[in-house]
Amino acid sequence: MIKAGDKLPDATLFEYVEDDRAGCTIGPNSFDVHGQTAGKRVVIFGLPGAFTPTCSAKHVPGYVEHAEQLRAAGIDEIWCVSVNDAFVMGAWGRDQHTSGKVRMMADGSAAFTRALGLEQDLSARGMGIRSLRYAMVVDDGVVKTLNVEAAGKFEVSDAASILATLS
């Protein structure tokens, strides 16, 4: 499992882009994790799945609500990473009103999640390989803090807990 002081692994994540802009087309676009975190402070939080109860009712809304406070504390970007495809993450982002606050990053094949060592097998529940619930602060591609939830818990990966690590 990745830990504080480690560099993020080489990986590609996908984001559904809603508007045509420089370097991006409308629809799924691929982004190199190292390139996207270079020279930035990024909060990355991972969760089991889009549209699932705790993820939709608490985890994502907390980061949307605290986005400005996190930026004021020196965070450049906030990423939500889930083992879903970019179309699902885009739809979930629209549902959660994340635009301009949280980037909804798809890890459809769980490659990034596995490289972090933060995967869990939820096949018995019909969900396949998914992410553990976690949050990390990354500075220029290096993990500074990592909070991983115990099974079934939501106590250390929320936006308020990450804000507390930044003060």
From TrEMBL:
Key words of the record: Antioxidant, Oxidoreductase, Peroxidase, Redox-active center
Q: Which PROSITE patterns does the UniProt entry name for this protein?
A: THIOREDOXIN_2
According to its UniProt record, what is one Pfam family this protein matches?
Answer: Redoxin
Domain Thioredoxin, residue spans: 2-167
InterPro entries named among the record's database cross-references: PRX5-like (IPR037944), Redoxin (IPR013740), Thioredoxin-like_sf (IPR036249), Thioredoxin_domain (IPR013766)
- Cite a single GO BP annotation: hydrogen peroxide catabolic process
| MF (Gene Ontology) | thioredoxin peroxidase activity
Q: Which reaction does it catalyse?
A: a hydroperoxide + 2 glutathione = an alcohol + glutathione disulfide + H2O
Quote the EC number. 1.11.1.27
Entry annotation: catalytic residues: C55 (cysteine sulfenic acid (-soh) intermediate)
For this record, the Gene Ontology CC terms, alphabetical, are: cytoplasm
Q: Which Gene3D superfamilies match?
A: Glutaredoxin (3.40.30.10)
Q: What does this protein do?
A: Thiol-specific peroxidase that catalyzes the reduction of hydrogen peroxide and organic hydroperoxides to water and alcohols, respectively. Plays a role in cell protection against oxidative stress by detoxifying peroxides.
Q: Which family does it belong to?
A: Belongs to the peroxiredoxin family. Prx5 subfamily.
The name this protein carries in UniProt is Glutathione-dependent peroxiredoxin
